[in-house]
User: Fold these one by one.
Assistant:
Number 1:
Amino acid sequence: MKLARTAAVAALAALALSACAPPTANTAASTSDEETGTVRVWLFSEVNQDPKSAVVKEAVKEFESAHSGATVDVQYIPVDSRAERFKAAFNDPSSAPDVAEFGNTDLASYVASGGLADVTGDIKAWDESKDLDAKILQTTEIDGKNYGVPWFVGVRALYYRTDLLQQLGLAAPKTLDEVETVARAVRAANPGLLGISVGGAAQFSAMPYLWANGGSIATKKGESFVSGLDNKESRDGVAAYTRLLKDDICPAQTCAEFGGNASVQQFIAGKSAMTIGGDFNYKAVAASAIKDKFAVVPLPGKTAGSIAPAFAGGNNLGVFNSSKHHTLSADFVKLLASKKYQQKMFDAMGNLPTFSDVQKSVADSNKQVEPFINTLRAGTNFVPVTETWSTIDAQGVFTGMYQKVVTGKADVNTATSEAAAAMNKAFGSK
């Protein structure tokens, strides 16, 4: 998930907020589909709310002009309290909105609760949907049905200090192995710096290493999932990432507890030569003391010219199952998530679009987002789309695996075996 912008800077690392326990509910689908009335909308509040509000107000005005007898009531809710708000709404339709913004890693648990409506038919009937990035659209799908429309996406890339690399005659890394060698060389020449700031708790920085080595978190088997963390390829990926958390690059004593935000903050503070950060971190880096001393490239893969698959975080717009205005609600979702308004949201907030052609357009005219768009084009991956992932995430199974390795509590084989067993136990408990 990515949640709200700048509440998103807390968020895409707080994509770990997907660790919320799955809400339980007794939600029955509404049998009404009223053509007039008020469409209630929940969107996430932002630290800088005005740009988002301005775009939404414009969409509301356009929608109301095109739908006689319909009005839209938008309420902005805090990201941090969303679990409680959604749970209450799923259990009490009278308090529920018709439309809501939600993080994509929350989707599976919301669907399991019966809270979200199937919008597959609405998407298929929507002409613009043919240009949605297929990989991103897939993150809204469970058992062949879509339960949301991707509103924006966030991915990570490699930030690096141009001045530090130039001083040592080093080029930007072209492979994951070169990331390691460059990081080690910079720290050797500058012992007070981290070669690359990464963390044992920065799961969305670790995942590309897993996937680039051919590994997997889990794969679908029948109605459930089976962990792939204990296969050879996954172990190679875990080993490659944990080699970065060594004294000669990013000492475990300092870096083992770093999450994504803490890792990026080290780079912003001028304490590291590289980091793996998101498109949503760019403005903060560009406003820092190193604003003229950094560049961004896609995190490379195993071979030169390749790009490591990134985690596709992001937010969706969906319709509540209890809504008495399904058609109106779906129409509003399609408008607010349309190409026109995704472009406006990018201009206002920097949110990366989920349409392939709009992605190309913003990359062509905004070079700072090109590395992130190229990362999207290369192909992204996602966590297992199951409500069980919330339990696994809440238990810290995935991040705990890395922290065991970097702190010396277990070797790679032992840590991955233990994590796989814990995941399989959770998957089997469905």
Note: Residues 50-66 form the longest helix (17 residues).
Number 2:
Amino acid sequence: MQQKAMYVIIAVLAALVAALVGSLVAMAEEGKPTVALKAGAATFAGALTLLLGVMLSLGVVGS
């Protein structure tokens, strides 16, 4: 497996972990599954964008 693809997979997995934590925190605070789903989706999108942005600026991924 190429090293850049491995870094992208790691970024996606880290974003999924952040989304899980975000949804668990929302579930503990609000107690509603829809709020937890929305919080998890927003956290996933934000974390993935941030991680890929950092990786692009460091030159890990990209052309």
Note: The mean pLDDT is 83.
